[in-house]
Design a protein that fits this description.
By secondary structure, the protein is an alpha+beta fold. The chain has a single domain, classed as 2-Layer Sandwich (Double Stranded RNA Binding Domain), CATH 3.30.160. It has helices at 4-8, 24-40, 75-92; strands spanning 44-49, 55-60, 68-72. The chain has a three-stranded antiparallel β-sheet with strand order 1-2-3, covered by helices on one side. A hairpin with a 5-residue loop joins β1 and β2 (55-60). The longest helix has 18 residues, at 75-92. The two termini are 30 Å apart.
């Protein structure tokens, strides 16, 4: 499986490092709002900046045996990817009834 971060910038015509987020404060503000929304439903979300400028997010639900971890170019992208993965893991748990699309964050 390819790394989603590397595959986003796999165009050979694009040279050099990835573009820098023009407003990093905006990403931080949106990430905190997203984490607050998830917390209302009992989820926890946290994130860490990696050395290459990307972000790693951990999203956890009390009914899951472990946190879902994902990487992204921004905090919001990493949190969203980790949340989608956590919802998919929840839906695969035995005894779960079919639910409507829960990947969208309210």
């Amino acid at each position: 499986m390819t790394d989603p971060i590397e595959s986003e910038n796999s165009d050979p015509r694009v040279a050099g490092p990835r573009p820098v987020e023009p407003f990093p404060w905006r990403d931080g503000r949106l990430a905190r709002r997203l984490a607050d929304r998830l917390a209302r439903d009992g989820w926890t979300a946290d994130w860490t900046e990696l050395g290459d400028g990307s972000w790693e997010a951990r999203v956890d639900d009390p009914s899951l045996p472990g946190a879902s971890v994902a990487r992204g170019r921004s905090r919001v992208a990493a949190i969203s990817r980790a949340h989608v993965e956590a919802v998919r893991r929840l839906d695969r748990l035995p005894g779960r009834r079919e639910l409507p699309d829960r990947t969208a964050i309210r």
